Amino acid sequence: MGDFAITLWVWELTGSATSLALTGFFYQLPRIITAIFAGIVVDRFSRKYLMILSEAAVVVSTLMLLVLHLTGQLAIWHLYLAASINGGFGKFGGLAYRASISLLVSTQNYTRAESMNTAIHYSSSIIAPAVAGMLYPIIKLGGIFSIKLLLIAIALAILVLLQIPQPVLEQGSGGARGQGSKGVVNRVKLLWSEVTFGIRYLWQSPGLRALLIVTTLFREALTLSDIIYDPMILARTNSSSQALAAVSTLAGIGGIIGAILVSVWGGFRSNVRGMLTGFMGIGLAKIVFGLGRGLPVWLPAQFFSSINFPLTNSSKTALWMAGTPAKFQGRVFAAHFLVYDLISMPIMLLAGVLSDRVFEPAMNSPTLLQSLFAPIFGKSAGSGIALLYVLSAIAMLLVGILSFRVSQLYLIEKGHNK
């Protein structure tokens, strides 16, 4: 609800895709810094307390925004600051949550567990946009933030009561406990070894290395489309919060149905095939979505896009868990998320600039791009963003198709990824 309300508030104030993209940029920026050490922290400290810390940071940042809004001083840069706080602390909480799943369920149930995790995400996608879209015109940003704080308080109370297991750690050799300059050098070497462990483990595992490359290519195309998704809908509907809420709600319904299907079915026997089939399904559905100009096309296209995500995410996560021992998952997962974030940041900035400075002006004035694509996308507001959206969707489809030929991916399932 908070994210939905912020999107509407920023769009009302600026009408700029770049402004929305910067929110994501500043969310990712501290995650890159914290990711360097987050894996070490998650593998050694209480994962439960790290999740509590992450949610507490959201409370602090939301309170800050609420006070600024109520006093009439809220500016866009405050949102960027809050996004940075949430992103930095959220890295620890999210990583602790992700690394705890393999300690809570058996290997054969990784896919089902992740599909239920996806169901949680899409449940909020059903309720939050519908409620926020209805309440935002009435209670505005301050009311939405107040509801958000109440819900986070409930979540924290539940989290405090839960038992979260910890992995069994191997005892170190103690070689870094020497005295003097030699001891300092040894400690520095040990710290550097810990910091770089995840990246080295990934790169020395052919299966995980291939998985990292393939999923990064798909993820960055998806990031581009996600950044321009809200601006495209708002631009084509004259800033209709109801239209954005309707599409988001149907996305949640599709995700829930997909998660239930995967939970009952268990997914493909091969998680590689499950992941890549999901990539192709998402790409095809998003191509249709980008070609549409209103709810009659957007709603079914979004539904079929979302129904593929539980299959994709559960298969992908099962591969990561199967290829990484539980005691290393904090550092290895941190490493692959670090790669994602490093590449996502320029993509986020590029998406806003391409939308506002290249594709939108080109499709709204006599240019070669307009003459080629106006019959498909039109010449009205949002047509340039829609063209960019379809190009990103085509990239997702191609990653899914071509990756079936990457033989190293199948090494994880065969247990030969080392």
| The level-1 CATH class | Mainly Alpha
Terminal Cα separation, in Å? 43 Å
- SSE order, one letter for each helix or strand: HHHHHHHHHHHHHHH
Approximate shape: globular
Would you report the number of β strands?
A: 0
Unreliable residue stretches: 171-178
Number of helices: 15
Mean pLDDT: 85
**Secondary structural class:** mainly alpha
**Biggest sheet features:** none
Assign the CATH superfamily.
MFS general substrate transporter like domains
Please, what is the oligomeric state?
single chain
Helix content: over 70%
Indicate the CATH architecture.
Answer: Up-down Bundle
CATH-assigned fold name: Growth Hormone, Chain: A
Which range does the strand content fall in? under 5%
| Cα-based radius of gyration, to the nearest Å | 22 Å
Explain what the structure shows.
- It is a single chain.
- The chain has one domain (2-165, 195-414): Growth Hormone, Chain: A, CATH 1.20.1250.
- The chain is globular, with a radius of gyration of 22 Å.
- It is mainly alpha-helical and 418 residues long.
- It has helices at residues 2-14, 17-44, 47-70, 76-104, 110-161, 180-203, 206-236, 241-265, 271-291, 295-306, 309-323, 329-363, 368-377, 383-402, 411-414.
- It has 15 helices and no strands.
